[in-house]
Design goal:
Length: 293
């Protein structure tokens, strides 16, 4: 099952990436410089492969003599900026092909591995109308398996309630840090207010909006009845070319509003259709948005 979310060749490509954030959190370190934790430190945790540009002083020369391979020694430095990933597990995430839920889990696995390689402490926090049981993982790349198994064990159901979730989040996690939210951001109520509240509380927010093709480009024609995946409510609609164009424009306008709000608050936004391979999203869109470097 682990290979279904993330495979070894993908993991190897992720080795050189680093989670990045723009805010300064006084007294905390992490996330900006991929060689920050190579070399001397408080507690040895792991090795990683050497890449051109790395600090030569951090090479484990004894390991090189034994293995004929350049490895860097990595140490834990405290205190760290908290990295918390909120993963939407509401019923609306089950739509799409591939489903937004499967896409979110694979993306979360990739981002977790990037953080673990750089010795970040990663909190995986599923949510729907409330926060569910989380997983905290740290200590290096070898901790990716528990993270993947946790993600594989998640199930999608229930309604989204962003306002309730955000209020619970700031209450349970008072220390400011980087908050990555992976969701389709579909809620009966407005998402903008709770997201603004989260940013105003001092967190740096990174929104990852996912959508299936039918979320943005409805394939329907004529009169149809649509059922809400979360509430079960149904509504009759009559689709023609003009209605489809208006629907797509409304969706794009909503995505622009999310992006503009996030950027105003010093955060970042990435919008991803689930038809885009996760590898392309990581090495293209995320790098361009400076969510990774």
């Amino acid at each position: 099952m682990a290979e279904a979310l993330i495979d070894q060749s993908f993991l190897e490509r992720l080795e050189r990436l680093t989670l990045h954030w723009q805010k300064s959190f006084p007294g905390l370190v992490g996330g900006h410089n991929r060689s920050r934790f190579a070399g001397s430190g408080q507690e040895f945790l792991d090795h990683r492969g050497f890449f051109p540009g790395d600090d030569l002083r951090a090479i484990n020369w004894r390991a090189f003599m034994r293995l004929d391979k350049l490895l860097l020694k990595l140490f834990q430095v405290e205190p760290r900026v908290p990295v918390r990933m909120l993963i939407d597990t509401s019923a609306s995430m089950t739509t799409g092909n591939p489903s937004k839920f499967d896409y979110a889990r694979r993306l979360a696995a990739a981002l977790s591995y990037v953080g673990l390689v750089r010795l970040e402490t990663m909190l995986l926090q599923p949510f729907a109308n409330t926060l569910h049981d989380p997983l905290t993982c740290s200590g290096g790349r070898h901790r990716i398996r528990p993270a993947v198994e946790f993600l594989e064990g998640l199930e999608a159901s229930g309604r989204t309630d962003f306002l309730r979730v955000v209020k619970q989040f700031v209450s349970e996690y008072p220390q400011r840090g980087l908050v990555i939210i992976v969701s389709d951001f579909l809620d009966d109520q407005e998402c903008e207010k709770p997201l603004q509240y989260l940013a105003d509380f001092g967190h740096e927010v990174f929104l990852v909006q996912l959508w299936g093709e039918e979320d943005r480009l409805p394939p329907h024609d004529g009169e149809i009845e649509i059922e809400d995946a979360e509430t079960g409510a149904s509504v009759k609609m009559n689709f023609d070319e003009g209605a489809r164009l208006a629907y797509t424009e409304a969706f794009d306008q909503y995505a622009r509003a999310l992006r503009e709000l996030t950027q105003r608050k010093g955060g970042r936004y990435v919008g991803l259709p689930t038809t885009m391979p996760v590898e392309q999203a990581i090495f293209g869109t995320f790098l361009q948005a400076r969510g990774l470097q």
